[in-house]
UniProtKB/TrEMBL annotation:
E.C. no: 2.7.1.71
HAMAP family per UniProt: Shikimate_kinase (MF_00109)
Residues holding Mg(2+): T15
Biological processes per GO annotation: amino acid biosynthetic process; aromatic amino acid family biosynthetic process; chorismate biosynthetic process
Coiled coil: none
Protein task: Catalyzes the specific phosphorylation of the 3-hydroxyl group of shikimic acid using ATP as a cosubstrate.
Protein name: Shikimate kinase
Family as reported in the entry's similarity comment: Belongs to the shikimate kinase family.
A single Gene Ontology CC term: cytosol
C-alpha cells in the first residue's frame, strides 16, 4: 500500500484517527502541523501572528516534501487543500481519505486554543465548512463519516481501502 493522506475540517479527528490507523498498519505517522512547527521552530499561532500567508507557504513546502514519503499515514491541516498546487501534491502523495465529521459534533468538542482561525470562537467554523466541504468532497478517494467510535472509524477506512 502507498501513503494514506487524511483531509478534513479542523477538529474532525484527523490526528487521532491518523495515529490509530498508522499503528494498525505499522506505518509511520506524520502530522503536517507538527512537522511545520518543527521545521519552523515556532508554533502555529506564532506563525499566524506573522501573517497567514507565511503559514500557507510553509504548508505548501511540506506538501511537496511529503510527496516523497512511502507507506506513511499523513494527517493534513484543515486548510492544506485550499491551494490547487497543494491538492496536486497531496493527490500525488497517496490515497486521500476525507474525515467527514458533522459540524455540530466538531463545534461541541473542538479545542480552539491552538487554532488561530478560531480565535474569536467557533462561529467561523460554519463559513470555513461551507467553503471547504466541496473541496474535500472533490479531492477524496474515500470518505469516512466520523460520528462513531475511533476503532469503528479506522475499521471503516481500512475496509474501504482494501
Ligand atoms: C487550519 C487548521 C489547523 C492548522 C491551522 C490552520 C485551517 O489544523 O493547520 O491552524 O485552515 O483549518 P487542524 O485541521 O489540525 O486543526
Amino acid at each position: 500500500m502507498t501513503n494514506i493522506v487524511l483531509i478534513g475540517m479542523t477538529g474532525s479527528g484527523k490526528t487521532t484517527i491518523g495515529k490509530e490507523l498508522a499503528s494498525r498498519l505499522k506505518f509511520p505517522f506524520i502530522d503536517m502541523d507538527d512537522y511545520i512547527e518543527e521545521q519552523a521552530g515556532q508554533s502555529i499561532p506564532e506563525l499566524f501572528e506573522q501573517g497567514e500567508e507565511l503559514f500557507r507557504s510553509l504548508e505548501t513546502d511540506v506538501c511537496i516534501k511529503l510527496a516523497d514519503s512511502t507507506d506513511t499515514v499523513i494527517s493534513t491541516g484543515g486548510g492544506a487543500v485550499l491551494k490547487p498546487e497543494n491538492r496536486k501534491w497531496l493527490k500525488q502523495t497517496g490515497m486521500i481519505v476525507w474525515i467527514d465529521r458533522p459540524i455540530n459534533l466538531i463545534v461541541k468538542d473542538i479545542e480552539t486554543a491552538h487554532r488561530p482561525l478560531l480565535k474569536n470562537g467557533t462561529d467561523a467554523l460554519y463559513t470555513l465548512f461551507e467553503k471547504r466541504r466541496p473541496i474535500y468532497e472533490a479531492l477524496a478517494d474515500v470518505t469516512v463519516r466520523n460520528d462513531q467510535s475511533l476503532s469503528e472509524t479506522v475499521d471503516d477506512i481500512l475496509n474501504q481501502l482494501n
